Amino acid sequence: MCLAILLAAPVLLPTLSDLALVPFETPTRDDPVRFSYPIEAFVTAGMSVYVGLSMVMLAIVAMTRVRGSGPWASVALLGLALAPGPVLKTVNGVTSVPLPYELLRDLVPVFHNNRFCERFLVCWWLGASVLAGQALAWLGSRTLRPRAWAVALGAMILIDLRPERLVMYRPAVPAIYERLAGAPPGWPVYEWPANYLSNRKFMFYQMVHGRPICQGVVSRRPLLSYLMEEHDAASTLESMILVLHHDLVPDEGHRRKLSVLMRRYDTRRLAVEGSCEALLLTRRRTGPSR
Questions:
Q1: pLDDT tens-digit profile of 1-33?
Q2: Distance between CA 27 and CA 25 in Å, rounded?
Q3: pLDDT at residue number 53
Q4: Which of 56, 126, 140, 248 counts the most CB atoms within 10 A of its CB?
């Protein structure tokens, strides 16, 4: 553990100093549940969180037959216990069955700042890799042809953990983004309504319109850094392209932000395509006080 902290110090120390200077957006309590994988994914070959049935079998051999496997077994089992998240989640939905992560989250404050629990699989793979090596050594010592055993078990692991073929495709981009070329050059694009998931699509759309964008996807940010707060949109830009997505359902916060924009900017319609509408916004000029 001390060695790990020492190796991570060049990245960890600047991060800690940054935390002392700016407020950060932290995950909500529901994030580890919303972003966790169903339990079936951990035993389904081809999934990114697949633990590898071959590795599980070798780990069991090492834990039951090899002396000194205890520390590595603890690391591996810790990863398996924490990776599914705070409650049991299946392909049919979220259950009310608590898991070990839920207990640790209440006892250890740092666990409140975690969003993706599957990252604990690093502990599983670290421990399981050593356990697999110990199991192979133990099996090799009990056979007349250890090299043949090693080749056979190695082939089994490679077949079990083979990656799925990556399928490439291009998501559909609303036609309205191609019509943004008629707007003044350099004007940024502000999408409405926007949230954590829709922002991923909006970032991809930038490949088509090639303009600066006012939203993005980050895990932590200074609270006043970009246009997710209503006062930012009304105070930092002189002009922008507002793209309204009428097929997305806005919440009350989004409606409030749009109301602020409409009060403080003059609007001119640029284009309408399907459920999308593009408006040119310029800040309203107020005359000198008399």
A1: 677 778 777 766 766 655 544 444 456 677 788
A2: 7
A3: 93
A4: 56
Strands 265-273 and 276-283: antiparallel
Q: Which residues contact 283 (CB under 8 A, 6 or more apart)?
A: 237, 238, 239, 264, 265, 266
| pLDDT the model gives residue 15 | 61
In this prediction, residue 188 carries a pLDDT of 92
- Supply the DSSP string of 113-177, one letter for each residue: G-S-GGGGHHHHHHHHHHHHHHHHHHHHTTSS-HHHHHHHHHHHHHHHTPPPPPPP------GGG
Is the pLDDT reported for residue 167 higher than 90? no
Gyration radius of the chain over CA positions: 26
Cα angle for residues 247, 245, 236 (degrees, 5° grid): 155
Two structure tokens written together for 103: 């207990």
Residues 49, 121: contact at Cβ < 8 Å? yes
Residue 190 β-bridge partners: 242
Is the whole model's pTM more than 0.85, yes or no?
no
Strands 93-98 and 87-90: antiparallel
| Residue in the block written with tokens 């895990």 | 219
Domain boundaries, the chain: 22-160, 175-283
Q: Which two tokens stand for residue 70?
A: 């205890």
How many Å apart are CA 243 and CA 216, to the nearest integer? 15
CA distance 112 to 106: 8
**What does the alpha-carbon distance between residue 205 and residue 225 come to, in Å, rounded to a whole number?**
22
